[in-house]
Amino acid sequence: MHSEIIMAGFGGQGVLLIGKLLAYAGMKAGNEVTWMPAYGPEMRGGTCNCTVVLSDKPVGSPITRSPHALIVLNLPSLEKFESAVRPGGVIVVNTSLINRLPARSDVRTVPVAANEIAQEAGTPKAANMVALGAFLGATGLGDMAVVKEVLGETFASRPKLIDLNQTCLDRGYEIGKACAAQARS
Amino acid sequence: MAKKLMKGCEAIGEAAINAGCRLFFGYPITPQNEIPEYLSARLPQVGGTFLQAESEVAASNMLYGAAGAGCRVFTSSSSPGISLMMEAMSYLAGAELPVVVVNIMRGGPGLGGILPSQSDYFQATKGGGHGDYRVLVLAPSTVQEAVDLTQDAFDLADEYRNPVMVVGDGLIGQMMEPVEFKRTISPEDLPPKPWATTGCAGRKPNIINSLLLNPEHLEAHNWHLHRKYQEMVKEIRWEDWLLDEPVDVLIVAYGTVARICKTAIDVLRARGIKVGLFRPITLYPFPEPQLSAAVDKAKKVLVTELSTGQMLEDVRAVVAGRKPVSFFGRVGGMVMTPEEIEHEVDKLVVQG
Q: Alpha-carbon distance B110 to B113, whole Å?
């Protein structure tokens, strides 16, 4: 197993956080992991991204120009990274904020209305969790139980957020899984 | 102890504490701010002192004072800040004071940019400040190695009574990877430093100084330092990767660049191209005999760095014209991709 994933969105949408959760869960599951944020001169409201590599052997390059998967929470991120994804890869698209789907036919698209789903669950702030859930459901990467455990540890100081975020993860996961099943049939 | 997922900078800070260091003096600069940030919270918890100085010049002279008093002490900065510390580095080397200096390198010259670079190789390995001195230089390529080498740096500094530098690029500083802190020592358990200026009641005063106006004394001191630097060859560390059999191309790279090369080598090997990697871990002393042995197994040598070719000069000196040496560099904060390395190797293979 070796998977390179880029997560991207506006600053404040929590893409670095879902990257950390994914990396942390990967480590707990016994994988080799790296988490690398883009740390250029960023500005408020600008785009933000990180790269996570999960592997069963020591990770070489912690950065990639050709990820296996992409999670995009806003349109500029889709435009920046769409063409980079490897053929056969997966693109999770937050359709709440992105008004088009990837133009490519050689990748699997997982559309998810992350903001609306998070809003229904209680707060649009957890849209990142919906998208992470959709990614996990669509790819089968990562163990949901471990991700939830990590989420619990991460939000230990704000316990009332744990249930809400777990609900969002679950909703996203179901959508991702359904999308994967559809692709297989 | 369970592994923790930590940012390189924070892991380096924790490594210093595990090495029994309780003093940090520094001045902020990107991309290493997470080191002082982490230590500003962590050092007071273990009875240490974090002090943000008014400048890098001040911070580095605070190191001189604390090291002279026999304390383990440490600073970190990034390229332009390290330049400001170079005067003190020369004095520290002259006065034989053990300190650890971490440089999370960014693009230069001048203020340059904030993105990853390896363009301070010359500064780190060839002196940097004035005078005929050297510091031991360690270059980690993973966060775990950054932890292990930072801890070792404190022991090596004390052993040789000399500054030790740990150099990483912005990737090492900003990346998170699982780490384990394998050993810890408290300041009370560190070996005594009988040369330190700790108060001379009941003994002859110790003097720490780098001013030797008598040329005969200064010459003797210079040769003494030189012998010490020569002894450091026993600390040489390196990694041979996929070099059991002869290779068509030997890549020489250090730090993060070496791991980008490993990804490229995996792909090249899968395509049947024989490539191996030599990774210096000590940049000074440079692993000359070890590299020379690796070069014997190769038809061609490719050096790749985040500079316009600095380590390249040391590699060329070792190869000494025996094999063709080519170079690929990215600079200014741009980082090479595994695909670019593959392309460079392909070009060398096609040339035959």
A: 9
